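<instruction>
Derive structure tokens from the sequence

<record> Sequence and structure tokens follow
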Amino acid sequence: MNYNYEMEQIIKGLDGKKKLLLHVCCAPCSSACIERLQDYFQISCYFYNPNIDSLDEYQKRLNELKRFLKEALLDIDVVEDGYLSQDFLEMAKGLEEEKEGGKRCYACYMLRMKKTALKAKELGYDYFTTTLSISPYKNSTWLNEIGKDLEDKYKVNYLYADFKKKNGYKRSIELSNKYKLYRQNYCGCIYSKNSYLQKEN
């Protein structure tokens, strides 16, 4: 399925701006996604990332997101529940030896997107989606299949997306350079960090 096309069809069918809860992983990934959506949705950023391996790293990414929104003059609020690392650690039990991009990553997508869907329903948003598909290292098919399943289960609209399309990833790099955003070199969890360090060595 062409998820970018599906998103464009949803946007074409909108009757005025709808409220969107956008799960965000970091400022660089958020930048191009927000630019793409801001004309069509009233966006709130949901920063729920219990996979991040330390409180310092969590706070650094959150602060960069807030700085970007402020410096880009974007009237977008940030919703967050704090650093809930235990959510990820419990989810990852038994999956510690999985390779990057495998079952542990799928479970992490599910964890964060389920929380986003529930938060969107709780707060009365019209749609939810995630910035994760902007990364060439993330499985957009998994992300969109999870999103659709959550839509059906919790009765809150999911916005299909593959933000890497139409040079989305390239645009995120351009915006990162423009605003001098901190671009982390690993996804967030200790396993992705160790994988990155092994490649460096």
Notes: The longest strand covers residues 41-47. The helical segments are 3-12, 27-37, 55-71, 85-91, 103-123, 140-154, 168-179, 190-200. Residues 103-123 form the longest helix (21 residues).
